Amino acid sequence: MHTFLWALARIFIIGGILGFLMSRWFGINTPLMKKNPPSEEMLSARMHLPPGFSISVYAKDLPDVRMLRFTEAGDLLASLPTEGRIVLLERDADSDGAPDGRSDLVTGLNRPHGVDYYQGRLYVAETDAIGRIAFNPKTRKTQGEYEQVVTGIPGGSNHWTRTLRFGPDGLMYISVGSSCNVCEGKNPKRAAMLRYTPDGGQDELFATGLRNTVGFDWHPDTHELFGVDNGRDFLGDDFPPEELNRIEQGKFYGWPYANGNKIPDPDLGAGHEEQIRNSLPPVHEFAAHTAPLGMTFLRNKNLPPEFKNSALVALHGSWNRTEKTGYKVVSLHFGPKGTITERDFISGFEFQGDVIARPVDVAEGPDGAIYISDDFTGSIYRVSRP
Prior knowledge:
Layout: H1 2-26, H2 40-46, E1 54-59, E2 68-70, E3 76-80, E4 85-89, E5 102-106, E6 115-118, E7 121-125, E8 129-136, E9 141-151, E10 162-166, E11 172-176, E12 192-196, E13 204-208, E14 216-218, E15 225-229, E16 242-246, E17 258-259, E18 263-264, H3 273-278, E19 284-286, E20 292-297, E21 311-315, E22 328-334, E23 340-346, E24 350-351, E25 354-355, E26 359-364, E27 370-374, E28 379-384
Antiparallel strand pairs: 1-28, 2-3, 3-4, 4-5, 6-7, 7-8, 8-9, 10-11, 11-12, 12-13, 14-15, 15-16, 16-19, 17-18, 20-21, 21-22, 22-23, 24-25, 26-27, 27-28
């Protein structure tokens, strides 16, 4: 028994020393061991929200849960990439604070991530293709066979996730991250936003130079497309900033030649001065390495006035930084003259280096509540007001 305890202690001691050295030498400081969902007591003690808001665990046992979408019937769709499936969580009709049931809608997929519903079909962004299947929100059932309408999307490597959303124009937008930390990619469909018709036609390279734009959404009033972008790693704790971009058709956003506001990249910037000069800078900068992922504009008219047309962004949290940062949800408030103000909306998932959750996506429910996925504990949280 003593031998076992000593061996266990040595593992923790060695792990702690290695963790310290990795943090100081390489700037790698990431939560390693996945955890169970935080208790209600822990959420109450640690979490900070705007006055009048409260948070609770809505659903759990959803391994590596990522992107969220609500159906017309009020059910919540969630992607589980590592398990290759899309799950439906039935709306909480009995008001007990949890889904009334759950079921798999589609299984056997190749790392499904983005999910959306359009004109009677459920659309799924796999890592190398876009598929769809007929779906009835009222019966909660799919019909017929799942078909891939877009193939040839570059898959795998770094940034394997693909996010899918239908825009106000009725077209399908797909974000594809870069294959590397920083490099001149060979495939033009990487580090880009793609656009298609619902049947997969009119293949279009909508915007480029976007290293890894996981979350994007359209402003409710102006219908401008905004997306968050993750900056490169291994340039120190505080550079480069993460970005919010106003994504426009045919525009180039700098990667891999520039970071932030047209600052030349130390590895690849030289010799690309004209491309840097012609690139579009971000309209807002987040702190470096906070890893903004999911983004959604709030449309609920019953929210406090300061949240009108604001956007919520999930900061997944740093790994390439000596001290952890991020691990929260922030709100972006758009001023009349183009100003954007960032405020903490939910904080406390990280405290003094201890991480209890890593937010991924944000969805606004028809019940007026806000739902947040967490791939660290396999949970979804519900944020509500009385």
